[in-house]
Amino acid sequence: MSRFYARRMPRAAVLLVSALLAVVAALVTAPAAQAAMPTPVAAATARTYLATLTVQAEGSSSGYSRDLFPHWITQSGTCNTREVVLKRDGTNVTQDAACAAVSGNWYSEYDGATTTSSSGFDIDHMVPLAEAWRSGASGWTTAQRQAFANDLTRPQLIAVSASSNRSKGDSDPAKWLPSRTAYTCTYVRAWVQVKYYYKLTVDSAEKTALTSALSGC
Questions:
Q1: What is the Cα–Cα distance from 164 to 108, expressed in whole angstroms?
Q2: What is the percentage of the chain residues whose pLDDT exceeds 70?
Q3: How far apart, in whole angstroms, are the C-alpha atoms of residue 172 and residue 72?
């Protein structure tokens, strides 16, 4: 028996070491996970949230101005909200001394577009500022509107292609959903979470569209 182990143990040790080295190598060479918008609540939670939202006709756009939602405020050092999101949502992003993204790769979840130039991407407010205004934000303080417009904690900000952002405008899900249907579930879950957190209302067509989309998630 002693001679058996004398012959076998070295080989077993070699195999064990080889396996450990393979694991270490995989960890070292594995691609870094891409950062992204905060993951929205699960579909079941979104459906629960949606059921509690107040349903009423949208308010007026009278008095609305983007300036009433101070955005792209300084987050730290020279970095404003836009640059933080560009860094978060891209890969291999490099920034200059002013925190501006000078290179990197970005993928638009809305339409599948890609770019290596940050100027080709916008930072979209999941629930648009004008939509929020018509859904209750008209009665907020400036501080509340600023917090909403720069919210990095909820799934409210995302870097997407400029063309998809312009196509969306200030539409709600009854009028616009991402052309990349694989993102529909994430989109409506995020929309509901933001509206729920900020106690914004939904109109009847909006709720119907959200209910329908969530039923397929």
A1: 8
A2: 84
A3: 22
